[in-house]
Amino acid sequence: MMQLSHQSPINDKMLVIKHYLTNCLGMEVKMEDRRIRYTKKVIKDTFIELLEQKPINKITVTELCSQCEINRATFYRYYDDVYDLMEKLKSQYVSELKEAISLSKDDYTISGFTSEILEVILRNKELSRILFSLKNGKDFLNDVLDIAHQKCVEKWNRYGKNVPQEQVGYLSTFISAGTIGILNEWIQNDFKESSSEIANLIENISHYGIAKIIYGE
């Protein structure tokens, strides 16, 4: 609560005015932040809709702004061009994946980090479809999976037989490539299976191999 001084009425009035202006400016900043977030969301959602219809090299800033009902100056306030917009969306997507994985626990498993990745994918279905359909579009997942796999190697070394260093690279490549392939198939099949089913599939293949699943051996 604001406390008034007992020195003079003028000081009290100045304090009231200062308090009022501070609150007003704070509200204006919050409203401005909301407007910016809303504008960026409209641009992002509209851009994704256009990407579902045509390749990025066929999308112009003019068309995007027309669909968003904003002027070009507003677009250029936040992005250099549609390619910059794409990179920022991809960067935000990767950051969300890495953040999800960073919330891991000590008993982290392959199905654990995969579940985190799957949840992010499900929250961004349309963008996931687009990124996975691009040529070399799945390369952005390599860094993410490397982080997750390192956590698994740490667990293997802590609770099981140490993984020979000369084999770590091969194991990482095998699990990462297989995981990306399964994720791609899942996305292309329009998320037919549940995320828990996909997480368990990746876990079983990684831990027991294909023969165990096919032949039960």
From TrEMBL:
This is TetR/AcrR family transcriptional regulator. It comes from the Bacteria. Residues 37-97 form the HTH tetR-type domain. Keywords: DNA-binding, Repressor. Signal peptide: none annotated. InterPro entries: Homeodomain-like_sf, HTH-type_Tx_Regulator, HTH_TetR, TetR_C_Firmicutes. GO terms for molecular function: DNA binding. Gene3D superfamilies: Tetracycline Repressor, domain 2. Coiled coil: none annotated. Residues 60-79 bind DNA. SUPFAM superfamilies: Homeodomain-like.
